[in-house]
Amino acid sequence: MSTLAGKHIVLGLSGGIAAFKSAELCRALVKAGVTVQVVMTEAAEKFMTAVTMQALSGRPVYTSQWDPREANNMAHINLSREADAIVVAPASADFMAKLLHGGADELLSLMCLARPIDQVPLIVAPAMNREMWSNPATQRNVAQLKADGIHVLDVGQGDQACGETGDGRMLEAEEILEDLEAFFTPKVMSGKQVLVTAGPTYEAIDPVRGITNLSSGKMGFAIARAARMAGASVTLVAGPVHLPTPRGVQRFDVRSARQMLNAAVLHADAADVFIATAAVADWRPAHSADQKIKKDGSGQTPELSFVENPDILATIAQSPRGASGDLFCVGFAAESHDLLAHATAKRLRKGVPLLVGNIGPATFGQDDNALLLVDASGARELPHASKQALAVQLIDDIAVRLTR
Ligand code: CTP
After folding, report:
1. How far is CA 165 from CA 108, 159, 213, 396, in A?
2. pLDDT of residue 41
3. Of 31, 53, 197, 343, which is least surrounded by CB within 10 A?
4. What are the tens digits of pLDDT across the range 70-96?
5. Which CATH superfamily is domain 8-184 in?
């Protein structure tokens, strides 16, 4: 379940063309189980109607500090007291300048100023033209807003409504949603560097053929995402998969087991935790042909012989940092039967403190799974759930082990 579920968020819109993304954001927040109270400035209403935002949020929108619906006529106090956070998206250059100076000449800025600073975080998603964004005045304001404890989200990069291209446009709704979810996630991995391998590897037979397996990479990507949400800085070494990079995660794409080994060894040096979820091909063709192998019409099939691939997890777990425990190594075991017995044996064989077992054929490509955590003292089951939810539980479990 999303960390946003059950939260009450005041979604503020100031004036900017990015307001159309706020409609999507509002919808996504409601879908995540958030109650959304929309507050709009007069300028915001030039870009988006209050009717649209009311329909999407399911609550009347506030646009004026003189709103007579509030019995005490203090919308700015009432709205900010019941919020878990105020999110201003889009936050225009002008609105940020106003926040900086404690301006309060309309409801949204008045409410931001009147919020109990220690209890109601203020998160802003800037949205503006690239020249406005890079202007020293704006950059000065952003720095000061951050120093004042306001959470300023990144800006997006690319085509802008004005026809120019550059930094300054507002993040997409799903990116803001990810950042908000991360904001509310307890930072149990704060300051930690986490390295994850994910997906299958592909071992070439010739330039057009190879051997691989059915791993989708979903579990590893979910773990990378959960670790980042928990405050870690995350490096993801991914085999060939069709998955978007989790927000805030540094990703390196590789193809073969040997490329994955090189990338993992390189990044293991700085890591505190290594989680090997990749379904690495056990063997590769002994020879990879430079040119496509052609049928010669004789009916003869080509002779293929294989050599064993390096074991990435064992190599890193048995390196000095892995063996001493400075680098906490976690293995995965994809088994088809006798999960506990195989996972227990594999943990010892690989030399890792924690091995996570799952039934491979049942989980490849699926969005859910069940995990068995095996360590020196026994086994614990994480029952059937979405891979996202299991990833969060696994990261929480690893975080506890790091403090022991
Ligand atoms: N692994 C690895 N490099 C390999 C093979 C496996 O890093 N060449 C890692 C996987 O990422 C996983 C763990 O080792 O974390 C176990 O992988 P699995 O394929 O289940 O085990 P194998 O070592 O291949 O053992 P077996 O073939 O006996 O099941």
Report:
1. 30, 4, 41, 41
2. 98
3. 31
4. 999 999 999 999 999 999 999 999 999
5. Flavin prenyltransferase-like (3.40.50.1950)
